[in-house]
Amino acid sequence: MRVKRFIPLAVFALLALLLFKGLSIDPTALPAARLGQPFPDFSQPELLTEELIDASALRPGPALVNVWATWCYSCRVEHPYLLALAEQGVPIYGLNYKDDSEKARQWLADLGDPYRLNIADRDGTVGLDLGVYGAPETYVLGADGVILHRHVGVLDQAVFEQDIGQWFPALAKLGQANAPESSAQ
Amino acid sequence: MLILMASSAWAVIETYEFSSPDLASRYHLLSQELRCPKCQNQNIADSNAPIARDLRVVLYEQLEAGQSDQQILDFMVARYGQFVRYRPEVDRQTALLWWSPLLLLVLGGLGVVRHFRQKERHPERGLTAMEREHVDRLLKDRLP
Amino acid sequence: MIPEIGHLALIIAFVFATGLAVIPMWGAVRGNIAALNLAPTLAMGVLVFVSIAFAMLAISFLDDDFSVAVVAANSNSLLPPIFKFSALWGNHEGSLLLWVLILSGWMAAVSWFSQGLPRVMVARVLSVMGMIAIGFLAFSLLTSNPFERLLPNIPLDGNDLNPLLQDPGLIIHPPLLYMGYVGLSVPFAFAIAALLGGRLDASWARWSRPWTNVAWGFLSLGIMLGSWWAYYELGWGGWWFWDPVENASFMPWLMGTALVHSLAVTEKRGVFRAWTVLLAIFAFSLSLLGTFLVRSGVLTSVHAFASDPERGLFILIFLALVIGGSLLLYALRAPTVASRINYTAVSRESLLMVNNLVFTVSTIIVLLGTLFPLVMDAFSLGKYSVGPPYFNAVFVPLMALVMPFMAIGPLSRWREDSAARWLHELLVPGAVVVVFAVAVPFLFGGEFNVWIALAVLLAGWVAVGVLKDLWRRLGVGSGYGLRWQALTPSFLGMAMAHLGFAAVVMGAVVVTQLNEERDLLMEVGDVEFLGGYRFELTGLSREAGPNYMADQAVFEVTQGDQVIATLIPEKRRYFASGQMMTEAAIDASVWRDLYIALGEPIEEGAWAVRLQFKPMVRWLWLGGALIGFGALLTVADRRYRRQSTRHSAPLAEASGLAR
């Protein structure tokens, strides 16, 4: 039966298609497991005031939650852009992940503070509940406090325009965010 | 450039004290079943990335707290997704993965059975197909 | 200057390869003997120029020429010379060059050792190999040129070779592995040539066998070495992780195992033709697929070379052409009239059919497990991971399934045999094995372990089958003395390989079941007991190596009042890269390994230490070595050397030219 002999070729064709598709996928990209869920509740001190806060402090949305630490080099790289975003009116909350709070406060004093408030997650419990696996990470919270997206890595203009900007339609000129590159670098 | 475990070039040795040997062996198994979310394909037992270390601590604490294996796995999956399990959950999504070994064997076995039944239905006669082809070719080329 | 010569040589090799792919193939179509005869010369040309290119790259490495990009990225002036040389293949570009070098070596070997074969066949085989060479040379020249320069800013020193690769095991592991992977291109080429020529007969199988056995033998050795290296180098005593790149080498091996057996059937009985051709195509296709997986970044792996989708696309297109082309040829040319089924359901043929089935299913399972995350991701069904727990759960039963047949196989008769006769031959030996299997765990472990009992049963069964075969061949008890001449290399090789397989199974099960491990904090003077041995940390010191500084812990291992060994595990810090590495200390023996690795220093003078007692772990690699060397031994058999006198030359020529 001639047709039977074509089966290996057909199977291979499917495999080749799969591999082709695979070339455009990043196998290391890991979407947040908590997508579509509200931000996990917690009770931690705020970094600057030391007052206890919980998840309701991260309102109103839409807002960004940025995971950062002083030991994280890339966080320093993305910092100016965060300042620019904050200036544009984007609400940014910080999750100071497994960090020395004194050093963190000093850092913000030196480099500028783009955060509405900062969760001092000294032992990383909030990060664990969120599914953080390394800094920097940035979460997008919707108007109702639901996690809409996670970006792993440095947040910059390109990433914002491509993935995040869609939730911040109020931002008239994203291009403005480029301007203060000179500061703090 | 070869990226060969540049981040974990040394043995990761945690010196936990378990309250029972059963917990220790469960720790051993689970730490090999859980994947480090950040690394290039390593379990949390073998990686020394910070997140792997944190997850080992969490695993230890959960075991000591009396959580079952399934509860611990569910805990990890809730935070990091299915990605973090090296043994995928057996459900409808992974049916292809878990059932294909048996399926393939059964199909293969059926094929073998059919193969031998066929032989009974078409007993041999005269030249084999191969011999026939060879003769045809020889005749066609008019070799001495 | 030297890199330029190398670059030029690579281009010339490409030209030769193109000639090789085209001219002899055209000669076969047109019946042009001159064109056919050009094949060996062209193959030689490829070998010569690739060798020159390789030599030039080697010189660049050994001379610390950091103007060459790969040298700067992978070497360092402090690196010991032998590692400067092996750094050549410790990266993507250089390893590709090694691939092509080994391919051209195989091409030359095929042209030398094929004196008795029809010229047309040899020409076609070499042409096909030339086509493969074109693909890899083009890939190298166009996307991964090893001779790229970093001018004018030549770095003062290189990045250093990853410390994990600075090891003798890593020197031989890739070359052996490539000998295997690339070697499978020979049976592939023979299969294609046979399909093109329209003769898929016993001769094709006979010609293919020695090449297949050697390639498969090298692949076995390469995989075995990789496992052994991982064990002693990586510090946690593991020896197989089902990592995608490991699987990429294992799948050709599994397919190769089926092929080795299937070729025997086709050669001796003229059946399984379509199956065998398909296996030959698949085995090499899986090698190519492995190349793709390792270098394209499609899967996450600790072994992966730096990934680049552009390179991935090139390889994928090449894959599509080679594999797609060969499967198309198969669909069009494979015999549709099935060979006469001249064997019964109880025969050696049917046992080997089961073998084919199990190994093919195993290959598909490993492929499915490896690609499952990709499949799910491609269909946006989520991110999954498939690792050792899954593979061990499905693969082990499959191997257990084939082992009962392994003992009967060598004893079975072709065409028609009887189950009663099998029972008669193996009943008594089988009963002995069962008793042994039940008793052994008690004798050694003190506790009955069902897995070990099963392993002893299956492995013992296989061993017993081999011994029975040996007994029978020697003609023991026939009254005519022992027929030593019956122990041909072919038989001995098979016996070794089967015993090796049994040894691997035994080792794997025992070490998994009876492994003892302890992680603890130790200071000088601390003592720990494990596996019946006493470990005492007697001292700590520092020692400098050629390109590293090491912290050492001295352990004295005793059993009773007998000193077994002094083991000195190290924690090294390499100067150039600043990387830390652990060097485990191992006391090896056939029956057990004692394994000590250092973790991190917790306080001053106290270290986290891992002690392991690993019974029979060496059996894994001893078994692997038996398999590999057994396969290599088979080609020493006289029957392969008799090929040149089998056919009268003119008839061979003429009949070869008929197509």
Commentary on this structure:
The complex is a heterotrimer of chains A (185), B (144) and C (659). Chain A has 185 residues and is an alpha/beta fold. Chain A has a single domain (32-181), classed as 3-Layer(aba) Sandwich (Glutaredoxin). Chain A has helices at residues 7-23, 73-87, 101-111, 125-130, 157-164, and strands spanning 44-45, 52-53, 63-68, 92-97, 118-121, 137-141, 147-152. In chain A, the strands form 2 sheets. Chain A has a 5-stranded mixed beta sheet with strand order 5-4-3-6-7. A two-stranded antiparallel ribbon of chain A has the order 1-2. The relative contact order of chain A is 0.19. Chain B is elongated, with a radius of gyration of 28 Å. Chain B has helices at residues 21-33, 50-64, 69-80, 95-121, 129-141. In chain B, helix 1 (21-33) runs antiparallel to helix 2 (50-64). By secondary structure, chain C is an alpha+beta fold. Among the domains of chain C are: 411-514, no CATH class; 516-618, no CATH class. Chain C has 21 helices and 10 strands. In chain C, strands 2, 3, 4, 5, 6 and 7 form a 6-stranded antiparallel beta sheet that branches. In chain C, strands 1-10-9-8 form a 4-stranded antiparallel beta sheet. The longest helix of chain C is centred in the first third of the chain and has 32 residues, at 202-233. The model of chain C is unreliable at 644-659 (pLDDT under 50). Chains in contact: A-B, A-C, B-C.
